[in-house]
Every structure is written in structure tokens, then in C-alpha cells.
Amino acid sequence: MSSDMVKNITDAIGAHGAWKLRLRTAINTGRSDAKPSDVRCDDRCALGEWLHGPAMDTQTRSGLPYQVTKRLHAEFHGTAADVLTLALDGRKDEASSLLNGDFTARSEKLVRALTKWKGEEIAAGGC
What we know:
Helix content: over 70%
Shape: elongated
């Protein structure tokens, strides 16, 4: 693989880490510039565009790191959308509970999978 893959993975880790703050802000204010229906779509963020896009070759798509990351990424977006829905409905306690529970767990799993994949790419000769 290429250094582009390692960079995409690194960028994805940072971008998805920022979601917790965005969701916490939505919970606190009851407002967001994002719609839950858009957040639920896992192919609209940079990582999703890369995972679903033409740059991802068939060999990579058939590998376990890709398949695990794609599944965890979709779960992450689904849970983020659920938190946002609760936040925008003014259900702060439920939104906070989901944010601190399932969302955080899914986020951590996704970051671990991305970190592992990145390590495998570096070990295989990516930069």
C-alpha cells in the first residue's frame, strides 16, 4: 500500500475523534449544523468517501482490516446519529448516556481498528 493509505487512516482517527465534542455541543445547546439523517450516512465523511470510493482496490476491500473498519465505521455513524437525534429532541440525559456509553465504545473500537490497520500498513512498507 501507499503512504496515502497511512495518511487517510491518520486523518480519519483525528476527524472521528472530534465527533464527541460536536455531539456534546449539540446536547448542551440543542442545536447542530448537521442533520441526523446525514450523520447516519457513513459514506459522506472523508473516511467514508475513501472506504467506499474508487481509490480502494479490490485486494484491500477483501482484507479483514478493511471489512472490520467499514463495519465499525457504519456503526459509529449510526450511533452518532442516534445521539444527535436525542440531542435535537431535547432529551439531554438520554443523549448524554448514549454518548458516554455506546458512542464512546464504538468510537474507541473504530480508532483501535484504524490504528491496527495503520500499523499493519507501516509494517508492510507504507510510509
